[in-house]
Amino acid sequence: MLWLALRFPRLAVETLSLPPPAVALQRGRVAVADEAAVAAGVRQGMRLAGALGLVPGLIGRERDLAGEAAALNRLACAAGEFTPQVSLAPPDELLLEIGGCLRLFGGLPPLLTRIAASYAEQGFARQWGLAPTPLAAQWLARCAPVDGMPPTLVDDTKLRATIAPLPIGVLAVPERTAGRLTTLGVRRLADLMVLPRAGLAHRFGPELPGLLAQALGEVPDLRPPFVFPEHFRDGLELPARVEDAARLLFAASRLLAALAGWLAVRCAGIQYCHLILVHEGQPPSRLELGFASPTRDPERLQRVLRERIERLELAAPVVGLGLEAPEPHPLPGTNAVLFGQGGTASLAPIVERLRARLGPEAVHGLTAVADHRPEQASRPVAEPAAARPGEPPAGPRPLWLLPQPRPLTEENGAPCHGGRLRLLTRAERIESGWWDGGEGLGDVQRDYFVALSPQGEWLWIFRDGQSWWLHGLFA
Question: Is the pLDDT of residue 385 over 50?
Answer without folding.
Answer: no
